[in-house]
Design brief:
The chain has about 230 residues and is α/β, with parallel strands linked by helices. The chain has 6 helices and 9 strands; from the N terminus they run E-E-E-H-E-E-H-H-E-E-H-E-H-E-H. Helix 4 packs across helix 5 and helix 5 packs across helix 6.
């Protein structure tokens, strides 16, 4: 089963009217698809001012979101995201799998990147992967939520999209950052991931969340069904 979320925007000509951003989740099964509306609204006044100044009043289009179950190392996208450690050394889980699939050259390249701060992201070639680029980000370790974990996790997704834009990547695959040995609660992490990619200006056209196991897939599936994404 694949969940696909499409978004489109409706323009208004008056600065005091509302721009409605409509999104639909397509839950595709072997025999049928169903749609679930996603509610997002924002004021148009700032866009109207931009238009008066000669700027582009069209808001950035949210990327298409896919939820799939499988191995992130075999995804045929422009860039995949690695849930790395702060030293960018070979680790376990997703990190270890990506290093094994990409080959020894990846570890040698990452060594020269001089590590990465939590909430930040650095980029490397994909080497032996289908993906041309690997974006390495360091997620926060869950410690109850009072140590800026939500803000740092949100920053991970924003930073990854920024690195993707720098190399003109149009498709990107994410793992569930911080939910493994870093123990970030699955549903909370999924909510932050989905909200951030839908509300971050980017040239990326498709975001694919790759769930390694059933628990992760069901967490993302639940959050998609709740359709509680806002711009706040």
């Amino acid at each position: 089963m694949i969940l696909v979320l499409y978004c489109f925007s409706t323009k208004a000509a008056h600065p005091n009217r509302i721009l409605t951003k409509s999104c639909f989740v397509y839950c595709c099964l072997p025999t049928k698809c169903r749609t679930v509306p996603v509610r997002q609204r924002q004021q148009l006044s700032d866009l109207f001012v931009m238009a008066q100044k000669g700027g582009d009043a069209t808001p950035p289009r949210a990327p298409t979101v896919q939820l799939v179950s499988g191995d992130i190392t075999v995804q045929e996208v422009d860039a995949i995201v690695n849930a790395a450690n702060s030293y960018l050394l070979v680790g376990g889980g997703v990190d270890g799998a990506i290093h094994r699939a990409a080959g020894r050259e990846l570890a040698e390249y990452c060594y020269r990147l001089n590590g990465c701060e939590t909430g930040k992201a650095k980029i490397s070639p994909g080497f032996k992967l289908h993906a041309k680029h690997i974006i390495h980000t360091v997620g926060p370790i869950w410690d109850g939520g009072d140590d800026d974990e939500p803000q740092l996790l949100e920053s991970c997704y924003k930073e990854c999209l920024a690195r993707a834009d720098e190399v003109d990547a149009r498709t990107i695959a994410f793992p569930a950052i911080s939910t493994g040995i870093y123990e970030y609660p699955q549903e909370d992490a999924a909510r932050i991931a989905l909200r951030t990619v839908l509300n971050t200006p980017t040239k990326v056209e498709q975001v694919r969340f790759v769930a390694f196991d059933k628990e992760t897939f069901e967490a993302y599936e639940k959050i998609l069904a709740e359709h509680q994404f806002t711009n706040s």
